């Protein structure tokens, strides 16, 4: 703000503009010229770090094609193409199709993520040729002059060129939470961000030379790892491999050496025993489910910066909400200016206008004041104190038009006023109506004095009305319905925050807690947090402590926010959610960014995570039941020294009808159940008894059939009977997994049963799959054994539920 013409401070004087009152012209650095920029680009001195939102196409293809299980199945497929009819090689075509689906879905997810990343990309303000403009971070060159304001992230390393009370938080790099005051000549590091004040710095290191460049690239990369779900599946697959290798070797020796059968038939039956041991579709289906989740959320303008965040939010049981920008919209309106102690209202409005002009980057509260009280261009700002969420106030010193000097503070009344001040009673009544109140006070101290707020004289109350988000009430109701506790944590007055939360129907909003009374001990703080829902006057460090306290009580915590004061808490929370309009720093540390700034999108993210986790847990039981019964059948065959009952075509048919097709639909179905921990234990407690029962029932039918049938075609009849039993037991596993029933789930199970009956009824399908039931005694015996197996399965799984609860 420059010096203005002299005015009469009573409001009615005349304007005088003598030349000698004009201030000296202050020359700001103009930044690089267009020619200098072009020269640096030619030398390669550009910030060309390839920060990607997703894996490359080559990475996606490689990850889906070159897997351990695809390699095993590929070798077996080639063998079967040589020694057996095409029917016995169908499993290879299924893998090709599944892998293709996985690649296509991940490429779609990549396209969605890349598009959203461009929308949400930060545009640092760079001064060139004397003009400031936002450009992409990749266009910054060495020597560029980059402007900074509250919430801006430092994108490259540099040296401060201009500073106006600029405070920078380097905690994401150093772990030190206290902001550092920066002056011209001080270094700044990429990855830090401005918490107060502003200025500009000159880029000294760009591209991969910047301190945090590699960290930033890794943090923003799309990933499918480091989640309980995927690590659990990896653990399961590791054990499966250990079981599969010795079992497969024993099966090979049994079928090729011990039994003196036709070589090609022995090879076919050996491969038929090995292939179903591999739960190859489980990994693929998980990738597809995650990828589809990204696409669905992308359509809702939700950028998932780290894919496991979908899973993490599904496990959340406490969501911490910042009031401003989350429950309320960013804008505010001044509804009243209430003068105190006989102050002149016209003079007060001039002070407010000058305060608004003194801050080049006003927050929402100050912007409302600027709109209501434009600056009269008559005062000169000699010093300013930017707003800080830790101080709860801002300030400025002015040279008034008549030569008078004055220093003013604007901020939280309960911070600036002493306890028991009469004005606090009026403020409480306003807060109870959900209004936000700021105090304008005149101080006699210098702005850089630690006692600047001491003995400040209250001059006026500025009453602001916040705009509630129209979707906030429904969103809070959703969380209540889903047993997710909502905690409103705000830096504003506790009573005012409680009134806003009450208007939105938040349970417990009437019991508000002033965070200044919170205990420092995490255990005691956690007890207070568990018993209350609304907290006001929370400092940035307290937000971080509150997240830690909740986590210490076993809670999975999500934190939402859009301001710089939310960054530390967002970083420490299990899941950080930022608004797209929030500061660059919050968007950088959050795993999920709501680009449409709609709090109502959050339930969609929770629902998507629950759908993915719940459904993958459900279908994993199908895949691993098949693995368990395949290993057990192979062991029983080796021990009994008999032919393996199945050809690959039989198990391809069974896997397709009882696992492959149903799993695809079940994995994409709605599922609102909150994700639970211990994925491996929860899946295996069903898969093991299911696999044991299926193997025992199938082998029993096979042994009965071997005693019942004789002659040259006996093996085919025995295989058909055993296949019938295995299909029926597997269908019962599917029927249990599909519960609770809906019309489409009943239709799905019935359709799979109808497809198998079609194979048994149509002659050319009988020949194609080598399935033909001979006589009536053995087929009905197979059905009876399967029915007994289904009954045992029901009892076993109910016992497991009681003995090993999830």
UniProtKB/TrEMBL annotation:
Predominant location: membrane
Membrane disposition: Multi-pass membrane protein
Protein name: Magnesium-transporting ATPase
Region (Disordered) location: 1-25
Transmembrane segments: 65-84, 90-107, 239-258, 278-297, 619-639, 651-671, 683-705, 717-737, 744-765, 777-800
Domain of life (superkingdom): Bacteria
Every P-type ATPase A domain range: 124-218
Pfam families named in the record: E1-E2_ATPase (PF00122), Hydrolase (PF00702)
Species this protein is from: Streptomyces hydrogenans
Keyword annotations: Membrane, Translocase, Transmembrane, Transmembrane helix
Subcellular location: Cell membrane
Database matches in InterPro entries: ATPase_P-typ_cyto_dom_N, ATPase_P-typ_P_site, ATPase_P-typ_TM_dom_sf, ATPase_P-typ_transduc_dom_A_sf, ATPase_P-type_domA, HAD-like_sf, HAD_sf, P_typ_ATPase
């Amino acid at each position: 703000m420059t010096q203005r013409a002299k005015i009469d401070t009573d409001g009615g004087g005349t304007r005088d503009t003598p030349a000698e009152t004009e201030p000296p012209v202050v020359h700001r650095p103009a930044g690089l010229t267009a020619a200098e920029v072009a020269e640096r680009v030619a030398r390669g001195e550009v910030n060309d770090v390839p920060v990607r939102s997703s894996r490359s196409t080559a990475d996606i293809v490689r990850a889906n094609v070159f897997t351990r299980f695809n390699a095993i199945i590929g070798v077996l497929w080639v063998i079967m193409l040589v020694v057996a009819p095409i029917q016995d090689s169908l499993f290879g075509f299924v893998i090709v199709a599944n892998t293709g689906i996985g690649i296509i879905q991940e490429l779609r997810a990549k396209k969605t993520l890349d598009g959203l990343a461009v929308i949400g990309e930060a545009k640092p303000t760079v001064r060139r040729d004397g003009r400031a403009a936002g450009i992409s971070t990749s266009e910054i060159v060495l020597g560029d002059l980059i402007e900074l304001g509250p919430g801006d992230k430092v994108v490259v390393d540099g040296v401060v060129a201009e500073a106006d009370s600029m405070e920078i938080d380097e905690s994401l790099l150093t772990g030190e939470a206290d902001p550092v005051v920066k002056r011209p000549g001080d270094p700044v590091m990429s990855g830090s961000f401005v918490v107060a004040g502003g200025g500009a710095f000159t880029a000294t290191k760009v591209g991969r030379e910047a301190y945090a460049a590699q960290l930033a690239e890794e943090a923003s990369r799309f990933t499918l790892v480091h989640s309980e779900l995927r690590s659990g599946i990896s653990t399961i697959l590791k054990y499966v491999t250990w079981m599969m290798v010795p079992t497969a070797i024993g099966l090979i020796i049994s079928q090729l050496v011990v039994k003196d059968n036709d070589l090609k038939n022995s090879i076919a039956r050996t491969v038929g025993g090995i292939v179903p041991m591999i739960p190859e579709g489980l990994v693929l289906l998980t990738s597809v489910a995650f990828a589809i989740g990204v696409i669905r959320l992308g359509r809702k303008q939700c950028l998932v910066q780290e894919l496991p965040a979908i899973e993490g939010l599904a496990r959340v049981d406490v969501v911490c909400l910042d009031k401003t920008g989350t429950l309320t919209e960013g804008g505010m309106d001044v509804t009243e200016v209430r003068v105190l102690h006989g102050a002149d209202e016209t003079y007060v409005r001039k002070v407010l206008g000058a305060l608004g002009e003194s801050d080049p980057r006003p927050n929402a509260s100050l912007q409302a004041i600027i709109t209501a009280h434009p600056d009269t261009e008559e005062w000169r700002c000699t010093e300013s104190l930017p707003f800080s969420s830790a101080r709860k106030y801002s300030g400025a010193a002015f040279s008034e038009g008549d030569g008078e000097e004055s220093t003013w503070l604007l901020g939280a009344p309960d911070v600036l006023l002493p306890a028991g001040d009469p004005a606090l009673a009026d403020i409480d009544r306003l807060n109870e109506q959900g209004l936000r109140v700021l105090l304008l006070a005149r101080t006699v101290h210098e702005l850089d004095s630690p006692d600047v707020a001491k003995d400040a004289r209250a001059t006026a109350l500025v009453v602001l009305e916040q705009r509630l988000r129209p979707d906030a009430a429904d969103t809070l109701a959703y969380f209540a319905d889903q047993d997710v506790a909502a905690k409103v944590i705000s830096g504003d007055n506790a009573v005012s925050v409680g009134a806003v939360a009450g208007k939105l129907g938040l349970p417990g909003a009437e019991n508000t807690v002033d965070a200044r009374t919170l205990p420092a001990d995490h255990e005691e703080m956690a007890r207070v947090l568990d018993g209350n829902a609304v907290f006001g006057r929370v400092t940035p460090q307290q937000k971080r402590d509150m997240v830690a306290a909740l986590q210490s009580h076993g809670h999975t915590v999500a934190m939402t926010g859009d301001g710089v004061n939310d960054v530390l808490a967002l970083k420490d929370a299990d899941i950080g959610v930022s608004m797209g309009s929030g500061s660059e720093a919050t968007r950088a540390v959050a795993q999920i960014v709501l680009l449409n700034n709609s709090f109502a999108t959050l339930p969609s993210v929770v629902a998507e995570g629950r759908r993915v986790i719940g459904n993958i847990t459900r279908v994993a039981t199908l895949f691993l039941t098949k693995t368990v019964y395949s290993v057990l059948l192979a062991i029983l065959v080796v021990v009994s020294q008999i032919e393996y009952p199945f050809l690959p075509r039989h198990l391809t048919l069974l896997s397709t009808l009882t696992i492959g097709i149903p799993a695809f639909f079940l994995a994409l179905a709605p599922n609102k159940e909150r994700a639970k921990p211990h994925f491996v234990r929860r899946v295996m407690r069903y898969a093991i008894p299911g696999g044991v029962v299926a193997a025992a029932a199938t082998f029993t039918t096979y042994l009965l059939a071997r005693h019942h049938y004789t002659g040259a075609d006996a093996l085919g009849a025995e295989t058909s009977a055993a296949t019938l039993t295995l299909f029926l037991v597997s269908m019962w596993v599917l029927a249990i997994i599909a519960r609770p029933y809906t019309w489409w789930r009943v239709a799905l199970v019935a359709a799979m049963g109808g497809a198998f009956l079609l194979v048994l009824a149509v002659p050319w399908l009988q020949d194609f799959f080598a399935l033909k039931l001979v006589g009536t005694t053995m087929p009905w015996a197979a059905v009876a054994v399967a029915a007994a197996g289904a009954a045992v399965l029901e009892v076993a799984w109910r016992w497991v539920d009681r003995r090993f609860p999830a």
